[in-house]
Amino acid sequence: MKTRSPQPLLTGLMWAQHGTTPQLRHTCEQGDGVGPYGWEFHDGLSFGRQHIQDGALRLTTEFVKRPGGQHGGDWSWRVTVEPQASGTSALPLVSLFFYVVTDGKEVLVPEVGAKGQLKFISGHSSELGDFRLTLLAPTSPGNTTPKYGSYNVFWSSNPGLPLLTETVKSRLNSWFQHRPPGASPERYLGLPGSLKWEDRGPSGQGQGQGQFLIQQVTVKVPFSVELVFESGSAQAGGNQALGQLAGSLLTQALESHAEAFRERFEKTFQLQKKGLSPEEQALGQAALSGLLGGIGYFYGQGLVLPDMKVEGSEQKVAPALFPPVPLFTAVPSRSFFPRGFLWDEGFHQLLVQRWDPRLTREALGHWLGLLNADGWIGREQVLGDEARVRVPSEFLVQRAAHANPPTLLLPVAHMLEGHDPADLAFLRRAFPRLHAWFSWLHQSQAGPVPLSYRWRGRDSALPTLLNPKTLPSGLDDYPRASHPSATERHLDLRCWVALGARVLVQLAEQLGEAEAVAELGPLAASLGAEEILDELHWAPELGIFADFGNHTKAVHLKPRPPHGLVRVVGRPHPRLQYVDALGYVSLFPLLLRLLDPHSSRLGPLLDVLADSRHLWSPFGLRSLAASSPFYGQRNSEHDPPYWRGAVWLNVNYLALGALHHYGHLKGPHQARAAKLHSELRANVVGNVLRQYQATGFLWEQYSDRDGRGMGCRPFQGWTSLVLLAMAEDY
């Protein structure tokens, strides 16, 4: 729990089960054996309940915020630890470690009781005013029966967020006795600290680097512990009369918030009304809650390589640290990708805005605040310690020549349909930045011929790569022309620019921005003209839309000791031609609804989409046709396939929206599009539900062969769009 500020007051929890080898739990790690875990409820603002399975233990953490005063009000957490299975004979001893971390400006003063126990922590910061944190005595779950707790404390200067776990782990080296009255004593590992300043070492009160204060409470399972934060101004403003947000008052608050969440959820998405099962409704609630619970406030400096205007000349210049900026954003996975991803965020906000349009306006405002003087926004935002510690060094630097799909325009288009006055007021303020961002994309990624476009920033053609990746496209290893060159024309990028022009013209018209309409109108019309799209991207020999470039299919990886796998190019030699790589990219004119319902190209696209030899699988549309020579192929010895067959929820959501769209428009393909929509929706929702029930997680991607979840988990970014698919809200 932290304040939304550059130097936050941060509170958190670690835990350990005592036994043969106590494991200290703090941050999520993919292989740590903990799980499933995730939010059952989270309203994005003032309430959440999370369940964590850790071996034989089940932890439930839940919080409520109570507004009041001038500093954000009070909040309370309750942590309940129970055995996973009922009737467990040997109940374990568990330590909870509640900590507070400051960044140097705040004051923390521990108030010590008679037996050296910590009564509470008083504090003050410029943002929070006076506050008090109190750890209440443990009780049995669900009632007020006290449970015996053993206490330890530790107080030091703040080692920095990435080192908190190690700092505690290295000091958990003393054995203490847990001696409940009338029971035999048990040994546990405890922190050997005290609350005297002279124990702090030479750094005094750690001025300038902040403080790290931990309370360890050790209790026999099952039990509950509550941590209460009380704001001085909220208490003075009337919250004191309401009573401390603890015990039965906290229980009541949690229950009323849970009930309010369920009611609002049904009112917003109407899953019950649409006849979805209780299991599907629970999946929908978890999908939304995981996305909202992952929203974060990040602050820091990004590393950027300036745009040198000439490709290939960027080696001569060093990356620069941009000035510090804040970013309030959803994330693909708070545990494994705790940072902003530009093209992911457009998909995230499609769901967030249905629930809380205000949150979407805040997030979009922050993203548009990252715009540089040219109109560029970096595609990954690695801001602050939490983000940086999860990013391999080669991905830290963003390149100011590289774009990313402009998906933020998807929630903008939804705002335009809704006519909410608050949304329109926001869009009026945001328009100059949206316009600058679109203009940068349209100009900087221009292709070799008019109205064509090319992603800048493909990987160099190294001898170890089967097909140089195109990370800026978002589709990373999706096969493109085998030999990267300036002659390439990228279909998906052209479709994104066409969508962008269309949305910006609609926005400019609604805002009465006549100059922008005059500038963008002709561009939108040209990009929307099917004959120009055909001329640039229809491949008659393949019968589909395709990229164009210097290409041959005759490439494969071959073992060549001692170099490992290297690329071999056979015959026919590469030549300028359409790229035979049937998959998500081929569908973009359909996905972004750029085709007329009577278009002669709609039929062939529906054919390949519905064909199980190509894109159709029982679990959703696969990213690359099973008939493609690149299907399931690794890109190098150490780079397994990513967008080469697996089922991804964001593109399946676009496909469902497009099929729903064409299924409601008069035309020769109306009935077929409607039928495919209902079949694809059943496949996608059914598989995500099965995998959720089997594993307790939403996943980054799903196997097109057996449907199992793959990649990172929990992945409650765009996979949460399964909720909008269930609600048929496109």
Automatic annotation (TrEMBL):
Listed EC numbers = 3.2.1.106
Keywords, ordered alphabetically: Endoplasmic reticulum, Glycoprotein, Glycosidase, Hydrolase, Membrane, Signal-anchor, Transmembrane, Transmembrane helix
Please state the protein's primary subcellular location.
endoplasmic reticulum
Q: Where in the cell is it found?
A: Endoplasmic reticulum membrane
Q: Does the keyword Protein biosynthesis apply?
A: no
Q: Which Gene3D superfamilies match?
A: 1.50.10.10, Glycosyl hydrolase family 63, N-terminal domain
Q: Which InterPro entries match?
A: 6-hairpin_glycosidase_sf, 6hp_glycosidase-like_sf, Glyco_hydro_63_C, Glyco_hydro_63N, Glyco_hydro_63N_sf, Glycoside_hydrolase_63
A single Pfam family it belongs to is Glyco_hydro_63
What's any one GO cellular component for it?
Answer: endoplasmic reticulum membrane
UniProt-listed PANTHER family: MANNOSYL-OLIGOSACCHARIDE GLUCOSIDASE (PTHR10412:SF11)
Listed name of the protein: Mannosyl-oligosaccharide glucosidase
Instruction: Provide the organism lineage as a comma list.
Output: Eukaryota, Metazoa, Chordata, Craniata, Vertebrata
